[in-house]
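Subject: Interface between my chains keeps coming out wrong

I've been trying for a while to get a sensible model of this assembly. When I model each chain on its own everything looks fine, but I need the whole thing in one frame so I can look at the contacts. Pasting all components below, labels as-is. Any help appreciated, I'm running out of ideas.
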Amino acid sequence: MPVVAVVGAQWGDEGKGKVVDLYARHADVVARWSGGANAGHTLVVGDERIVLHLLPSGALHPQATIVLGQGMVIDPDALLAEIDALDARGGFRLDRLVVSERAHVVLPHHVALDRLRERGTSALGTTRRGIGPAYEDRVGRRGVRMGDLLRPERLAARIDAAIAWWRPMLEAAGEPLPDRDAVLERCASWAKRLGPYVGDASHLLAEAIAADRRVLLEGAQGTMLDVDAGSYPYVTSASVGAAGIPTGLGIAPLRPDRIVGVCKAYTTRVGAGPMPTELDEPLGSRLREAGGEYGATTGRPRRCGWLDVPVLRRAVRVNGLDAFAVTKLDVLTGLDPLRLCVAYEWDGQRLEEPPFDDLDRVRPVYETLPGWHEPLGACRRLDELPAAARRYLERIGELVGRPVTLVGVGAERDDVLGTTDPFTSANRASTRRSGDAL
Ligand code: GDP
Ligand code: IMO
Ligand code: MG
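Reply #2:
Try treating it as a single job with all components included. I did that and got this:
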């Protein structure tokens, strides 16, 4: 049975949560491999809107084991708040939750440092959830892992080392130092509540794969926020692309049988950094309001622009994407004509992908396509879409060289058309080669 991965193909917020929730109906295991509570993955179930920051978006499917992988950085308070909210709602099987013992803990000083830096002139527009400093402590070999919470005799020394490292920076900024006893007390209460779920996720996943279980892997953020592949330094601090899967889950490098890239039918970005297709007013606001483009984690307005194909080409190449899920096609209703950025011009050259640097200096090359005026919310089949919407999707498929196998036409979990069981289609080898259209 195949392993299927879902990866963000833009700057995050592509609608990964919705796609994973849909696919998770068919999964035995759903695992996240990167990021932390900087993510905000929205599920809309009837009138209910649920935003998950740490729990994988398969959490509402009681048959699935839910895994938080070792590549994640976990704020235990945020995780407990999420667990409590889902518990109160019902339908969430806490006994199916596994948190990797190797995932790092986001501690109070990480959040303090993130906020401190964001006050300075080199602010990146982070989510201020302590993500960057937590990953820095991980590679700096002074981090605290979830499994450490259960070993109090070693924990105090680790916390002391981390505080000692950051002390000069905090003091220079006039910030209070974390109170180590208070931190240890919080760690003890986290251990008590989360201890039962902390375990060896690496083995669990290896066994699930060996036993031919249906394993669904959920990416957070998006390729352009990947610390290596993205628009550095305006990125997050993790390997959020498919290349982060083995290290983020503690499994041998594997080629998932299917890697689905999720993109919106246009582009958005929150935080600072270049965005070549960003729209001027009033069109930018029009798209923002039509799409409800406000951050699921921070509530910040998202910057909006035309679909950027060079960004998608980067995502195809570095993630090895097999297919695309295109979300929010319905939001483009009434925008006529539509523009598609098919390449960039930079320094007298035509670029098919973002350059090493200088993304702020490229000029988008646009193609113009006719728009449509009909609402799409009720469409459930490709042939029910207006011809111009079909042509728009077709053109995206041509330009990225991959089939579009799922299309979002509304926020609700069933507002889609296309292939909703990725495991079945991954089994049909021919679809991988020739590309199955919807
Ligand atoms: P994620 O971080 O990739 O999971 O995406 P977010 O949840 O941050 O943002 C995506 C937003 O778009 C959420 O508010 C979703 O409810 C919404 N959404 C997802 N797919 C569609 C769609 O096809 N149409 C519309 N109108 N909204 C969608
Ligand atoms: P999901 O999983 C969109 C952005 C922040 C900022 C940069 C660094 O919901 O798609 P960080 O707090 O990670 O240090 O911030 O990355 N960012 C996201 N943007 N969606 C996300 O997650 C994001 N996670 C981080 O806005 O620009
Ligand atoms: Mg999001």
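Reply #3:
Confirming on my end. The first helix runs from residue 16 to 24.
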